[in-house]
Amino acid sequence: MNDADAQRVGAALSGLGFCGRAEPEEADLIVLITCVVRQSAEDKTIGRLESLKGLKRRHPSTMVAVMGCLVADPATLRERFPWVDGFFRPSDVDGLVDLVRQRFAPETAPALPAERTPVSVSIPISMGCDHHCTYCIVRLRRGSQQSRPAGEILRETREAVQRGAREIVLLGQNVDAYGHDLPSQGLNLAGLLSQVHDTDGLLRLRFLTSHPGEMTEELISAVAGLSRVCPHLELPVQCGDDVVLRRMGRGYTREQYSSLLSRIRQRVPGCSIATDIIVGFPTETREQFEATADLVTAERFDSVHIAKYSPRPGTPAALLADDVPQDEKERRHRILEELQTRISQEINSTYMGRTVEVLVEGRHRGRWRGRSATNKLVFFDHDADWMGELASVEINWAGPWSLRGTVKG
Ligand code: SAH
């Protein structure tokens, strides 16, 4: 979401004549796009804001703007960080652009051509979320779900592809519920996927994040039946124990989650699955944690994003004692990391000798970097310009986080 906001802010600012700078000291304008989903993310943001205070003293004309989930109560933030010129809620690109216009009178600056359009462009399809997961601050900061009209999404897709994008990633906190709040439009995510799918020149289509309680058979059929929709799903499970799942307010059991996965795997053979897990939710016992480790062992996810629980202000779980000690959270985190590293390595090793289609997104340390349809990061050496192309790569090295190979002629 924040990457997508950053892309949009970047495009709007280059339209006003701004270009990117590597060093904050050289910038006329600094925009921080903030995340507060965990305390550690919030701490990082605050640290960054504190360090900008000195910069602002040295360069008083530099404009500092803060956007994103940190911005719940601008008045309080203004008091706490008086050196910040403006606070904007998540995705409020227009608000930011208005202030920048006032400040810099950019009618004097020629609009610059936008920087090269990324091969993979993310397009938000809904803002906010209607779930009430007890640990989660997102709904408090981004509000309830507001789907964007399909017409806007299709237009942005066409424009992005015309500018050179080859992959579109449809984004939302819970994309499976797309359209529920726009009943007159009569379009759900499966319908939206099939419309976006038909965009001329589009090679790949992805969407995230899904909710296990809302992934319908119709959506699974869309993934199975639409050739450009990648066989890769982001399906956060959060925990493998039913009591904890209920306390988290997730709305499904472990059994329901596992049966969903087996239906997906039946309908979309080879579908890769990524998940999120929280360890150390209040009252989580060692046995309950073991149930999560069992689930990870049994389901063999392609990747798992593991977070240590941290209480977020205003959420129902923050009223519970945060009673799993920090070192125990770290132990559970480490156990799952080690387990998943082994599983990811095993899964990736099955790619050895296979040829995969890689959509090339850029260069990294002298190599081409791209992704397989199953979202595996793939590197290869080659002299030709592969940017934005599909390369057939024969895999000859596999690690837990990436693959390497050679282009087949
Ligand atoms: N709707 C999005 C939520 C984004 S938050 C989604 O379902 O992915 C991304 C991840 O952060 C969540 O899946 C969860 O694993 C983690 N997370 C959210 N709140 C958290 C908290 N209070 N402590 C630790 N991890 C949390």
CATH hierarchy class name of the largest domain: Alpha Beta
Per DSSP, the total helix count is: 12
Level-2 CATH architecture of the largest domain: 2-Layer Sandwich
Give the end-to-end Cα distance, rounded to a whole number of Å: 37 Å
Write a brief structural summary.
By secondary structure, the chain is α/β, with parallel strands linked by helices. The protein has four domains: 2-108, Methylthiotransferase, N-terminal domain (Rossmann fold, 3-Layer(aba) Sandwich), CATH 3.40.50; 116-230, Transcription Regulator spoIIAA (2-Layer Sandwich); 262-349, Transcription Regulator spoIIAA (2-Layer Sandwich), CATH 3.30.750.200; 355-407, OB fold (Dihydrolipoamide Acetyltransferase, E2P). The chain is built from twelve helices and 16 strands.
Q: Can you characterise this structure?
A:
The protein has 409 residues and is α/β, with parallel strands linked by helices. It is 36% helix and 21% strand. The protein has helices at residues 2-15, 39-58, 74-80, 93-104, 138-142, 150-162, 189-197, 217-225, 242-248, 254-267, 286-299, 326-349; strands at 29-34, 63-68, 86-88, 120-124, 126-127, 146-147, 167-171, 204-208, 232-234, 272-279, 303-308, 355-364, 367-372, 377-380, 390-398, 403-407. The strands form 5 sheets. It has a 5-stranded mixed β-barrel with strand order 12-13-14-16-15. Strands 1-2-3 form a 3-stranded parallel sheet, with helices on both faces. Helix 2 links the parallel strand 1 (29-34) and strand 2. Helix 11 (286-299) packs parallel to helix 12 (326-349). The longest helix has 24 residues, at 326-349. It starts with a helix and ends with a strand. The structure holds S-adenosyl-L-homocysteine. S-adenosyl-L-homocysteine (SAH) binds next to strand 10.
